Write a sequence for this structure.
């Protein structure tokens, strides 16, 4: 009964180190790790101990006999990563255990314990905090502009992917560490500057993500009925800035431009059964809109052919096992043409799945739900409509044939773009802060910018999965700790208590970890009566009210904190 890694694999590699027989690959030391779509268990070498199950932060691993019907294709997918062998013949072991990448060791002491500010609280921020806190005495303060932490895990992961959101349990454990502090509802660049942070910390790690959408520059993009997939996902996920997003589903077709995993997320949610979504953490406003939706088809339009599909294989398997997905006759032919030439194994597997899909012109809807059509070789030309969107005009890629598809909503899903950070250099084209392995460098030279580091999408661009940020953050922390050990970081000048005072002066509504726990508990309680994991607040005011109900820390805790502060000053 070998174990199997399934769709929600976050690729953070925790399972690799838990495995006693090194049967999960690619491991973080192997070349394919950074670009792998998921990790794979070798069914021949697996000893079924289940250690990987406990280590996985997103519940992606199960014994093969306990998979759901939708997960069954992952048995073959895990096995296909490894070469064919006669039954019972194991691969020669590379080493008994996967080599652990050593934690960055702090072995110096400059101006008090190493104290680091992290800006942002998504996966890159939390993995960076986790790496720093492996070292005795290091202090981490996390600044987040919303009163609720965890960035895209909270506001970007689709509600039908609840297991992926389990990674927040890991983040909660990190946040409970004594040396970790949350400063939520505090915006860097507005309430505090980079210099303010540097006055109170040895270094600042910016893990602020890539919050902007890449824009499609065609006529009609400002008409009512246009939008971006990421805005829609934020609206679905109760992000307070998107509560009032106008989302009109009173027509038959939605077009999503681009076919990455975000496009698949949106298409799945728009076509899912609202009764099933009602048991997730979807926002009430999105659920009511979906219940009233008249959408019958979501077209995911890619400008290139099937071979170049941007979605990953696990997500394609997840889509085709839960929704009705079809292809036009011309696209079926394109898939067969690609299958005749493509040799790369993962792409071939995608094409093989695409070749089994129903035909758009004949397929009836067995699930009585709206269907999804994957469309290829359509280059966007312009949005049609006078007062609002009525459709989209494409050119068939590589020809001058025009194809028009009627639709009432057009969403672009063509990737994210980083936003410049006040007081730091920025590469506008790439949408990242220039850096050398996470150490921020000046735009016109490779010289480091004092005390500034980056991790996650603002460092490497908007690619990869939640767990990709673990190795990304580790690299940044290694650079930072090297600089601290070498004595090149300036010592903070402000006393620890002065930071609290400064933050409160600039933002009296700062929310701490106890405030977040109160928001969290209130949201979970609001969801209980309707059998939902939580019912999220949709406004900052509601979150602040819930945070205000947080109990004051007990006297012994306050005394311990004060003693620790005095020790820092000594
Ligand atoms: P993405 O994977 O980069 O896909 C972008 C899509 O937009 C591609 O199809 C691209 O086509 C298309 N595109 C770009 N410019 C275009 C233009 N001017 N006109 C038409 N099409 C254009 O981006 P994403 O979907 O936003 O995902 C971002 C990252 O988050 C990815 O690494 C993704 O895997 C990850 N993510 C993962 C999950 C998950 O694991 N469940 C969920 C969501 C997101 P070309 O290929 O032709 O450029």
């Amino acid at each position: 009964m070998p174990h199997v890694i399934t769709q929600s694999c976050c690729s953070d590699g925790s399972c690799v180190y838990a495995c006693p027989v090194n049967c999960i690959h690619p491991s973080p030391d192997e070349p394919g790790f950074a670009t792998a779509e998921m990790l794979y268990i070798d069914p021949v070498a697996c000893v079924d101990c289940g250690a990987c199950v406990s280590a996985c932060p997103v519940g992606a691993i199960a014994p093969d006999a306990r998979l759901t019907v939708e997960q069954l294709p992952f048995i073959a997918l895990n096995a296909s990563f490894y070469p064919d062998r006669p039954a019972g013949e194991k691969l020669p072991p590379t080493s008994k255990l996967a080599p652990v990448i050593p934690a960055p060791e702090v072995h110096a002491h400059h101006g008090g314990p190493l104290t680091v500010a992290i800006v942002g609280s998504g996966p890159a921020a939390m993995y960076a905090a986790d790496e720093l806190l492996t070292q005795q005495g290091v202090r981490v303060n996390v600044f987040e502009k919303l009163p609720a932490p965890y960035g895209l895990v909270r506001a970007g992961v689709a509600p039908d992917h609840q297991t992926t959101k389990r990674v927040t349990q890991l983040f909660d454990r990190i946040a409970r560490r004594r040396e970790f502090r949350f400063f939520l509802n505090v915006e860097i660049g507005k309430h505090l500057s980079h210099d303010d942070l540097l006055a109170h910390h040895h270094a600042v790690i910016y893990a602020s993500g890539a919050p902007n959408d890449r824009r499609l520059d065609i006529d009609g993009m400002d008409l009512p009925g246009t939008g971006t997939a990421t805005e829609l996902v934020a609206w679905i996920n109760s992000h307070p800035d998107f509560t009032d997003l106008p989302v009109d589903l009173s027509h038959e077709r939605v077009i999503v431009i681009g076919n990455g995993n975000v496009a698949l997320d949106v298409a799945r949610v728009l076509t899912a059964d609202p009764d099933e979504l009602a048991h997730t953490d979807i926002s009430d406003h999105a659920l009511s809109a979906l219940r009233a939706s008249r959408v019958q088809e979501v077209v995911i339009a890619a400008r290139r052919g099937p071979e170049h599909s941007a979605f990953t294989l696990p997500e394609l398997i997840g889509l085709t096992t839960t929704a009705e997905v079809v292809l036009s006759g011309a696209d079926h032919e394109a898939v067969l043409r690609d299958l005749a030439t493509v040799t790369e194994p993962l792409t071939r597997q995608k094409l093989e799945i695409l070749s089994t899909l129903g035909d758009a012109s004949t397929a009836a809807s067995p699930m009585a739900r709206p269907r999804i059509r994957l469309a290829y070789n359509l280059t966007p030309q312009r949005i049609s409509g006078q007062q609002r969107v009525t459709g989209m005009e494409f050119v068939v890629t590589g020809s001058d044939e025009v194809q028009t598809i009627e639709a009432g909503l057009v969403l672009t899903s063509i990737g994210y773009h980083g936003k410049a950070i006040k007081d730091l250099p920025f590469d506008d084209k790439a949408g990242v802060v220039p850096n050398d392995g996470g150490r921020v460098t000046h735009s016109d030279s490779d010289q480091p910018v004092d005390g500034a580091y980056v991790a996650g999408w603002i460092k490497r661009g908007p690619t990869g999965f939640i767990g990709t940020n673990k190795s990304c953050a580790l690299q940044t922390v290694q650079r930072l700790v090297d600089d601290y050990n070498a004595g090149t970081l300036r010592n903070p000048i402000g006393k620890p208590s002065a930071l609290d005072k400064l933050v409160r002066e600039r933002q009296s509504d700062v929310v701490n970890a106890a405030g977040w726990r109160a928001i969290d508990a209130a949201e979970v309680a609001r969801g209980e009566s309707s059998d939902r994991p939580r019912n999220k607040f949709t406004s900052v005011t509601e979150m602040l009210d819930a945070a205000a109900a947080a109990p004051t820390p007990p006297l012994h805790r306050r005394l311990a904190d004060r003693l620790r502060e005095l020790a820092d000053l000594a």
Q: What stands out?
A: The mean pLDDT is 93. The first strand starts at residue 3 and ends at 5. The chain has 20 helices and 23 strands.
